[in-house]
Amino acid sequence: MQSTLSLSFSQIPNRPICSSSTPRNLRFCGLRREAFGYSPSKKLTFQTRSRRIEVSASSSGGGGGNGAPTSKSFDYDLIIIGAGVGGHGAALHAVEKGLKTAIIEGDIVGGTCVNRGCVPSKALLAVSGRMRELQNEHHMKAFGLQVSAAGYDRQGVADHASNLATKIRNNLTNSMKALGVDILTGFGSVLGPQKVKYGKVGFPDNIITAKDIIIATGSVPFVPKGIEVDGKTVITSDHALKLESVPDWIAIVGSGYIGLEFSDVYTALGSEVTFIEALDQLMPGFDPEISKLAQRVLINPRKIDYHTGVFASKITPAKDGRPVMIELIDAKTKEPKDTLEVDAALIATGRAPFTNGLGLENINVVTQRGFIPVDERMRVIDGNGKLVPNLYCIGDANGKLMLAHAASAQGISVVEQVTGRDHVLNHLSIPAACFTHPEISMVGLTEPQAREKAEKEGFKVSIAKTSFKANTKALAENEGEGLAKMIYRPDNGEILGVHIFGLHAADLIHEASNAMALGTRIQDIKLAVHAHPTLSEVVDELFKAAKVESSAPTTAPSVKVAV
């Protein structure tokens, strides 16, 4: 490829130049080229505070619809199998980096998150939050408000979730089309090194090549043995999001993120809920202190009961006037424990990777419990423990962290690597959230995990806590129930984990997660300023409550600015 780039700068009178008059590392500042109507034949003019910048570019050589030339020996620079959130994030970043990119989707753009997961579930949870508030007479009275009995239209609620999924799906599709990403319809699989085939059932396959390939096929609901799903009375989250019914009594198998969020929805809409949890306590994946508080607020006051330490060994759908039958056995001894008769059962036991039929045998890749093995750079590892050249796997299919935004971050990391910049994603800095009312969020290690790590590596752990009851904004909203907790090293100020339960916890966690990602220490971030009165002061007070040893180093030199 040959290209020319011409720049002209003219200083604006009476304005100081902020840096050297010689331009270096000119970037588009993250703005995508289509926002400027960019094409290789156009001249662009940017007006900054100190300069007027004109950019014209022309290129010659091979290339495709996204304006990026590729090697003559390949059809594309990058092919992505799977157009979920992970594949979409990788595709957009690839085009920004100048790669000719194609994405293959056998179902519909958006994958699980947009169509059967985080997007429609947030629509249902938005409804449940409003219903819960309107039904709380004491809460309303505290504001001086009087509200008549709140009701809902089930189909209207379901339509809200469906319409949101459609809107986001169209947004994702249009964003890729606008950038020139080739969207190829059909089921994709790997034929061999740098070679992929795709096509629809009953039609001939198409074979294409790429310098690099990313597998981003996501996951499907995991259904344990002995459970018969009929999609009506025994359902997975895929079915539940359609909200075809609101049963009087529903059993939810599993008390993780999915189970908790659906318990919030169903109880707000009038259902009674029974949790069935295999471990000895509810919410086993959360920090124990947060779980205890969350159970007191999210479980105990609501129409929810639970069985812990048991498996649902057999679940039979309702039929011929008989209810759903659930047989429970002791999780340790496997002895029969109880039999439940309920109106419906939701299976929320997690998700399984969707990796069958991808042609992995063609490149000698053996899955581990269905997951595709990768290294810390998302490079696929074959059955002999060797890296498969130019092949990557991101998102739920590799099992590192089954979150949509983690998949997107992994995809962006891979694109950085294939375009010449080494990048390793810090998974401990990726936040997670459960959108109950109130919300739960977390990043990094739980307290038991941190103490185990400290014992092995020989350092001390300290805990800082703040309450939402001390936050003006939370009290103004009459939402003082909540706790923020930080686990850290007092010797150097490193943040090991942050856990929040309270109003808008899912939004508050990001200051902590970004600090962890950037390596910012507590002794530096506690000097940051937060607007008052805002919920962000919960996190501000958390940092200020930490006691870091005076000898701990800072992460960056202090800068004095005279104004």
From TrEMBL:
Coarse class of the primary localization is plastid
EC supergroup of this enzyme: oxidoreductase
Q: Which residues form the active site?
A: H532
Every Pyridine nucleotide-disulphide oxidoreductase dimerisation domain range: 430-541
Q: Where does FAD bind?
A: K122, G188, T217, G218, S219, D396, M402, L403, A404, H405
* Residues annotated as binding NAD(+): G254, S255, G256, Y257, I258, G259, L260, E261, E277, G350
What's the cofactor? FAD
Q: One Pfam annotation, family name?
A: Pyr_redox_2
Q: Which cysteines are joined by disulfide bonds?
A: C113-C118
The FAD/NAD(P)-binding domain covers which part of the protein? 76-411
Report the cofactor remark: Binds 1 FAD per subunit.
What InterPro entries does UniProt report for this protein, alphabetically?
Answer: Class-I_Pyr_Nuc-Dis_Oxidored, FAD/NAD-bd_sf, FAD/NAD-binding_dom, FAD/NAD-linked_Rdtase_dimer_sf, Pyr_nuc-diS_OxRdtase, Pyr_nucl-diS_OxRdtase_dimer, Pyr_OxRdtase_I_AS
Q: Which GO terms describe its molecular function?
A: dihydrolipoyl dehydrogenase (NADH) activity; flavin adenine dinucleotide binding
Q: Which Gene3D superfamilies match?
A: 3.30.390.30, FAD/NAD(P)-binding domain
Q: Which family does it belong to?
A: Belongs to the class-I pyridine nucleotide-disulfide oxidoreductase family.
Assembly behavior: Homodimer. Part of the plastidial pyruvate dehydrogenase complex (PDC) containing multiple copies of three enzymatic components: pyruvate dehydrogenase (E1), dihydrolipoamide acetyltransferase (E2) and lipoamide dehydrogenase (E3).
Instruction: Identify the PANTHER family for this entry.
Output: DIHYDROLIPOYL DEHYDROGENASE, MITOCHONDRIAL (PTHR22912:SF151), DISULFIDE OXIDOREDUCTASE (PTHR22912)
Its function, per the record, reads: Lipoamide dehydrogenase is a component of the plastidial pyruvate dehydrogenase complex (PDC).
Query: What is the protein named?
Result: dihydrolipoyl dehydrogenase
Q: What is the species of this protein?
A: Arabis alpina (Alpine rock-cress)
For this protein's source organism, the top of the classification is: Eukaryota, Viridiplantae, Streptophyta, Embryophyta, Tracheophyta
